[in-house]
Model the fold of this input.
Amino acid sequence: MALTTWALRKSLWVYHVNAGACNNCDIEVLALLTPRFDIERFGMILVGSPRHADVLAVTGVCTRQIMPRLQEVYMQMPKPCVVLAIGACANAQGIFTEAYHMGAAVDETIKAVDPSAIIIYVPGCPPKPEAMIAAAVKGMEFLKTL
Amino acid sequence: MSHKTIINIGPFHPLQEEAEFFQLHVDGETVIDVDVRLSYNHRGIEKLDESKTFDQVPFVVERVCGICSASHPLAYVQAVEEIAHVDVPERSLYLRTIVNELERLHSHLLWVGLAGHFLGYNTVFMWAWKYREPVMDVLETATGSRVNYANAKIGGSRRDISDEQLREIDKVVGELHRPLDMLTNAVLDDPVLHARLKGVGILSPEAAKAYGAVGPTARGSGVPIDVRRDDPYAAYDLVDWDVVTAPGCDVFGKAVVRLLECYEAIKIIKQCIKQIRPGEIDAKVESIPPGEGIGRVEAPRGETFHYVRSDGSNRPVRHKIRAPSYVNIPTFKASCIGQQIADVAITLAAVDPCYSCTERMCRVVDADTHVQVYQFADLVRLSQQKTDRMRRS
Done:
């Protein structure tokens, strides 16, 4: 196991990007920090810069306007990193698939710049905070196998 | 000596939940101008609605904004009910009021928490969000989801709330009084919060009226404007409550309005639970005749306005949404200029801006990067091509 993956097994730091979400997933991501769910017990915190983050939590449909910016944020993250696509929109653009302002889905957008990106999908509109915690824990388990 | 610079905030910034872009023009530490550039979150919902049937649209408009996800569908169904001249059963009116006021409770507590976070008072953030969780729980019990309620339906409500659930709601909002007292006292008595919030982000009543501010933004400037009283919908004219305003016109006033509105919300919910009678919850609307209608709802952030036009088919021909943040955001021009940079974050947050509601798209210009530039005409063309493609498929 490389030193970087060894260091990734615990205390993942999360950078949250709203790629055109309706705020539902975002308030649920924030709810993770607060006493009821308290994701800090896994050592996870939200950080203010993608350069400090191990996990990119993306919510929203990824609009045309956001697409290049999301790619830039992803490129700024130290690799290896995990992308959490939170919610139906981030998974497959949800009910907004047919709208005119859609870019590509989050996974396609990120795979366009890094084909080997690790993407974890959290379905739901919005997913419950428990589901997000489960996804984060699965992500940690996956990183141990690298 | 003056030193003028431009400070960019966004599009991704740790303080912001959503992608938005502000340019602050500063002279030393003082803000002399502010420029707001949006459309990162624009999803084309109005256009999307034209491809959905009347019954499908509530699910789309619910996702205009996740925090006002009871207000937007309600405004939309009221607009459609105005076209179809529907008499909504009384029980459904009460159900709508209960869900909308629960939403106001959770939204205002959410704002108090975020405001505390912006000021560096993370304790307030944790407290407010902790006391918000019971409200989310009863919303989940009553509607099936924590944030997307799918409650309003053309002609009534989609789901009844049982007596047992009503008792549970009554109990939970009753128990909210004590933590709310604690939070209100903590905010209103804290000398540091007074120093940070009083006299900051002044929005005079004249400016509030000139910019057309709505909701707590206007009421915090002493302008008593509230759709629930001015144009009653649902069961607001059947219960007793007061419009909360605060003098001072500053961020403190807006915080006071939001905290005191939580008490009003509890009062309204308790009365609704007392007055609600068994009965039908759905008027069973068969078809929507040609015509146009408007729906107005006091969302937690202010008046939400929906306009719907029907041509007698099963889809709306035009659906126009005006969300409260759309008129509240320009008040930054009045409230931010002359502030210190350090006070700007809370001044911007005081409006409780919701960009996913607000995003419009006319023109996107980015001179520095290689971002595609769309003119409004291009968008119309794209949109028409899309409709054309869908018609053919």
